[in-house]
Design a protein that fits this description.
Elements: H1 2-16, E1 20-24, E2 29-33, H2 35-41, H3 44-50, E3 58-61, E4 68-71, E5 76-78, H4 79-93, H5 98-112, H6 119-132, H7 137-148
Antiparallel strand pairs: 1-2, 3-4, 4-5
Helix pairs in contact: 4-5, 4-7, 5-6, 6-7
């Protein structure tokens, strides 16, 4: 119960600052990032100034690994493996439009590998996948977060 209260307190703070939209129900809650929150996340210097996160992130290229692993104190993500897992699941999860989904995921992957990432292209792919293959969103969110941090 204590963890839930801490989470709700922090969500309420972010809502009051205009960074998220948040609604609490009797057994659950709903939160999504607001446009002000997106603007903040897209500006890492401002984000760190306003909401400093005391996490040391390191980026390592691991030998015999096909992707980059992003590590923090207790979490890691292998970006290439994450994309590969999505590609493997596409035919099973969405057999009716798997080629279209694969093309969107490939477009997103290609964009995230660029030195100058177009946030609007990332957002367009994300929104399309959210509507048409929402099972990809948790993994895609982790990949995007790891890429921008």
């Amino acid at each position: 119960m204590r963890d839930k209260n801490i989470l709700l307190f922090n969500l309420d703070y972010l809502k009051r600052k205009g960074y998220i939209e948040f609604k609490e129900y009797s057994q659950t809650f709903f939160a999504k990032i607001a446009s002000r929150g997106v603007d903040l996340v897209e500006n890492p210097k401002e984000l760190n100034k306003i909401l400093p996160i005391p996490i040391l992130l390191t980026q390592n290229i691991v030998q015999n690994s096909t992707g980059v692993i992003i590590n923090s104190d207790n979490a890691s993500i292998n970006i290439q493996d994450s994309f590969n897992n999505i590609y493997q699941r596409i035919p099973v999860e969405n057999p009716e439009n798997n080629e279209e989904i694969k093309m969107k995921v490939e477009k997103l992957e290609k964009e995230l590998k660029k030195d100058k990432i177009s946030k609007s292209k990332v957002q367009e792919c994300y929104n399309w996948l959210k509507r048409n293959a929402n099972w990809t969103i948790p993994t895609i969110t982790q990949i995007i977060t790891a890429t921008f941090i």
